[in-house]
Design a protein that fits this description.
By secondary structure, this protein is an alpha+beta fold. It has three helices and eleven strands, in the order E-E-E-E-E-H-E-E-E-E-E-H-E-H. The protein has a single domain, classed as OB fold (Dihydrolipoamide Acetyltransferase, E2P), CATH 2.40.50.100. The chain has a six-stranded antiparallel beta sheet with strand order 3-4-5-11-10-7. A three-stranded antiparallel beta sheet has the order 6-8-9, with no helix packed on it. It is globular, with a radius of gyration of 15 Å.
């Protein structure tokens, strides 16, 4: 599914913070959406959690810095880190090259009933967001 030129694969769930979550057996892989990475060009630094670390609900699990801003990713459920993409330590900008195939971390946690959106819901949500931003800057 797409919003404008931004893809939202149907095999994952989405947060309103430009994060995708994909279920792999008993694990959840996390990454940044294509739309999110387009807003986060030139990632220069990333802070990833330690394997085994327990992240409380709504605490940030990942922080990354671009040339313009620092962003944080949090989850609406408690999770335990089971894998970290080690490549990101050396080159965090690879997220921009293929955001749906570059998981940042994998976690275990109970994500049911936590407000994760389906691809259809994410397309509707982000489509409305883009539309409002265009209206806001129309005429500038």
């Amino acid at each position: 599914m797409k919003v404008e030129e931004f893809e939202f694969p149907e095999d994952r769930f989405y947060l309103k913070t430009h994060v995708w979550v994909k279920l792999h057996e008993d694990r959840l892989a996390l990454g940044i959406t294509e739309l999110g990475q387009s807003l986060s060009k030139e990632i220069v630094h990333i802070d990833l959690p330690e394997i085994g670390e327990v992240i409380p609900k709504d605490d940030f699990i990942i922080a990354y810095e671009t040339i313009k801003a620092v962003s944080q990713i949090s989850l609406p459920f408690e999770s335990t880190v089971v894998n970290v993409n080690e490549e990101l330590w050396d080159d965090p900008n690879i997220i921009n090259s293929d955001p749906y195939n570059i998981p940042m971390v994998e976690v275990k946690g109970d994500f049911q009933d936590t407000g994760l959106m389906s691809a259809a819901d994410a397309v509707a949500y982000y489509g409305e967001l883009i539309s409002k931003e265009r209206e806001r800057y129309e005429g500038y």
